[in-house]
Design goal:
By secondary structure, this protein is α+β, with helices and mostly antiparallel strands. It has helices at residues 5-15, 17-24, 63-75, 106-125; strands spanning 34-39, 48-54, 88-94, 97-104. Helix 3 (63-75) crosses helix 4 (106-125).
Amino acid sequence: MGGTPTERAAWFRRHADPLRCALVLEPRGHADVTAVALTEASTPEAHAGLLFMDGGGYPRYVACGAVAAAAVCVSRRLILTGDYPKPVVLSRTTRGKPARIAFVRDEVLAWCAARIRAHRDAKVAA
């Protein structure tokens, strides 16, 4: 897929753009939907990389998408934080240089993960 997020987005655009369209465009999505795919980390300090997708293509960064991705990763135990003193780090690089790194604080992740679990449990109980 490529080493940098820009290369990964270009690969995804060439080989898997119908998946983006199916996820974010009508009838499943709408103009404000953003999808996020986990990729390999682009920097050594990151837990994972992110590929953002919306109706217009592949934006470089979506802040609410980074927080949502981190919350899902923690709630689904895709990223284990445990007693790790650092927050979850999700990176976005441009041309091999770190452009944006999302540091998501443990309190935010705990709140988001609890909301996701409560929603999932409510669906199971119904």
